[in-house]
Design a protein that fits this description.
By secondary structure, the protein is an alpha/beta fold. The protein is built from 13 helices and 11 strands.
């Protein structure tokens, strides 16, 4: 079904059908109503991609996340889609699968589709030569807002949390509750955000040399999910007594760590405090409920969409200072 079929059924030219579908005012009311009646009767749906080619821009905004299996990204996507729809745009969600090649592929797709804009949310590093070049190419034609990491000279806007400060303050607060060495799970060379969070942890521990010497900052090269948190804690079963807190760079690691502690007979929080990062929706309903560093996801979405609209319209973009996080204390840190 196409414009030609509509024109044939309505007894008008294809140009008239196109003018009706595009909302042109040069078509008389009777003709417009007749064409729209035929369109409805035949169930015709305009091809959005073809329309975007004619207009020079799609009405869709892409949302690319590191992995749609991560609960925090699910929460973020939900808020972004809400904020984007309120501005009259549709959305396309891209799963990057923690892969540089997939990210590059999706940047090319965004350019081909002439998306109205793109939001990129990933903790994985984007400063490699090939990825940076792909993002620069896309940002040249598709307005881009990145959540989480800043690069010097980037041709896009960044909305970021101050994770260095958040991690430092969280560790200082937890050491005030239990002044013992920390087991940090999450440092990884491939992750920009885990590096930011590690820096904050080290800054806090550096104020207590004895505690820093007894702490362990674990490098994770095989992902940062539930199974990894479980495995890393199980592997240190004989050394856990020296730690007072397990600090994880995401909630999945923390959940895996809690499971391992339970199996090892280590009580949370009596023997060990555990804290995650992201504050996903399920955490209050666990036993014990899990503490986490939280950010206002709705506020992030509003700031991102405001910045993206400014870039789309070619105006001045001011995202303001870095966003702040806070500890949400639940049972795993003593309430």
């Amino acid at each position: 079904m196409g414009v030609v079929d509509i024109a044939r059924e309505a007894g008008v030219s294809t140009a008239t059908v196109s003018r009706v579908l595009n909302g042109a005012e040069s078509v008389t009311g009777a003709t417009r109503e007749h064409v729209l009646e035929v369109v409805a009767r035949l169930g015709y749906t305009p091809n959005a991609f073809a329309a975007s080619l004619r207009k020079g821009r799609n009405d869709a905004i892409g949302i690319a996340v590191a992995s749609i299996s991560q609960p925090w990204h699910v929460k973020l996507i939900r808020e972004l889609r809400r904020a984007i729809r309120e501005q009259g745009f549709t959305t396309i969600v891209y799963d990057l699968e923690h892969s540089e090649s997939v990210l590059i592929e999706h940047t090319e797709s965004a350019r081909r589709l002439r998306l109205a804009g793109m939001v990129l949310a990933t903790g994985d590093r984007i400063d490699g030569d090939e990825v940076r070049a792909a993002l620069d190419r896309m940002a040249g034609t598709v307005p881009l807002v990145v959540i989480g990491q800043e690069l010097p000279g980037a041709g896009w806007t960044t909305v970021a949390f101050d994770d260095v400060a958040a991690s430092e303050q969280a560790i200082l607060e937890l050491l005030g509750r239990r002044p013992k060495p920390v087991l940090f799970l999450g440092e990884a060379a491939s992750s920009y955000l885990s590096e930011e969070r590690r820096i904050g942890v080290e800054r806090a521990l550096s104020q207590f040399p004895d505690l820093l010497a007894g702490s362990e900052l674990v490098a994770l090269d095989a992902g940062m999910d539930f199974s990894v948190g479980y495995r890393e804690v199980q592997a240190r079963a004989g050394a856990l007594a020296r730690f007072g807190t397990i600090f994880c760079v995401n909630d999945e690691l923390a959940l895996g760590a809690c499971r391992a502690l339970s199996e090892l007979g280590v009580r949370v929080p009596e023997d060990m405090m555990v804290i995650g990062y992201g504050d996903v929706d399920m955490l209050p309903y666990l036993t014990p409920s899990l503490s986490s560093l939280s950010g206002d996801v709705g506020g992030v979405a509003e700031r991102v969409v405001r910045a993206l609209l400014a870039r789309i319209e070619g105006g001045h973009v001011d995202v303001g200072p870095k966003l702040q996080r806070k500890i949400v204390h639940r049972e795993s840190t003593g309430g």
